[in-house]
Design a protein that fits this description.
This protein is of the alpha+beta class. It has 2 domains: 114 residues, Trna Endonuclease, Chain: A, domain 1; 181 residues, no CATH class. The protein contains 12 helices and 15 strands. Helix 1 packs parallel to helix 3 and helix 7 packs across helix 10. The longest helix has 20 residues.
Length: 351
């Protein structure tokens, strides 16, 4: 709130505050911020918020007499977004009527609003509440924090070592058909076009050609799960290898890699992600060996295998239609699977 409002006073939690958890400003023209917390932040009917507002009626009348010109209700509850009938619109109508009644501007800040505020807050504020961080913010905090506990320090070391190791392993292009290690991937990779044959359900993506598949997969606007299809030998593994290297370069730091005379991918991204590349041929070999105690690694060494069968991960059936919620591309780069993690997951296919 200090980042959003001027001259904020924050009152202690659990005490009688007279309907004001926070106050912005002094004297007249004050903004009152009142918090309504629920242990269950899932969507609630508009009646729940209305009851909270009506329960503050006496406090609102008194605060207006004392100089309140703006009253903001803040809640961690998710508001329904349906136009006209959703809880957000219903509460907005109620607040509009109450604004006329109390002669004060009234509004409600919902959980999605608060999440957006936190996302755009200065990094110093986020670091003060590390426990609530998730995704890229949590990863960045882990990598940059100087005050790590032993467990967190080990996690950081594991992440950095993992990414650096696979950066080194995937620097060179490997032609699996002839088992030959070629030159540097960054020197040989050429992005190609693809054609979308289906789009994710609920989107308006057109069935059109994409000029640069790798850049498209790296674009934040692309649906989070994409299946790239094609015939053997067209470069499916190379595409996944290249995209992973772009994320690894961002993770390690392109300037640091350049200082070590590393050849960087032509593409770049500001997204901080830890890429995992799974070779489906190795996965299939391991799946066939699930009734044995060992499986063979790509280098020929044996590794322990669990005795019980593993469930096949969803979305790895290359070449099969997964239903109306997928989008597909046919491309010169070939068949492969590129999984990209987001909070809202949809599957997609490309050929």
């Amino acid at each position: 709130m200090l980042d959003r409002f001027a001259d904020v006073s924050v009152f202690p939690v659990g005490e009688k505050d007279g309907g004001r958890d926070m106050v912005s400003g002094t004297g007249e023209n004050r903004t009152i911020l009142q918090v309504k917390f629920s242990g269950d932040r899932r969507k609630k009917r508009a009646t729940w918020i209305k009851q909270q507002i009506n329960g503050e009626a006496a406090n609102i009348e008194r605060l207006v007499r004392e100089g309140c010109t703006r009253y903001i209700l803040m809640t961690n509850v998710e508001g329904g977004a349906a136009p006209g009938s959703g809880s957000r619109d219903e509460v907005e109508k109620e607040l509009t009527a109450l604004s006329k009644k109390y002669r004060v501007q009234m509004s409600c800040v919902w959980s999605s609003d608060l999440d957006a505020w936190v996302d755009n807050a200065p990094w110093e504020i986020k670091l003060a509440y590390v426990d609530m961080l998730a995704g890229t913010d949590a990863l960045f905090a882990l990598l940059t924090s100087m005050n790590l506990e032993d467990g967190e320090r080990r996690e950081k070391d594991i992440l950095v070592t993992y990414v650096a190791t696979h950066w080194s392993r995937d620097k060179r292009l490997k032609f699996r058909q002839i088992d030959l290690v070629s030159d540097l991937l960054s020197d040989l990779f050429v992005d190609v076009t693809a054609h979308r044959t289906s789009a994710p359900r609920g989107t308006t993506m057109s069935l059109r050609d994409v000029e640069h598949v790798a850049d498209h997969l790296l674009d934040k606007a692309t649906p989070p799960l994409t299946l790239v299809e094609g015939v053997p030998g067209q470069g499916k593994s190379t595409l996944a290898q290249y995209v992973c290297q772009v994320y690894r370069a961002a993770f390690i730091g392109r300037e640091e890699l350049e200082a070590n005379n590393e050849v960087l991918p032509g593409s770049s991204t500001e997204e901080l992600r830890v890429p995992f590349r799974i070779d489906l041929a190795d996965y299939a070999e391991a799946a066939r060996s699930n009734n044995t105690s060992t499986a063979t690694t790509p280098t020929g060494h044996a590794r322990p295998r669990p005795s019980r069968p593993r469930r096949r991960p969803e979305g790895l059936d290359v070449g099969k239609d997964s239903g109306p919620d997928t989008h597909r591309h046919r491309s010169g780069v070939g068949a492969g699977m590129v999984r990209r993690g987001r909070s809202r997951r949809r599957r997609g296919r490309w050929r």
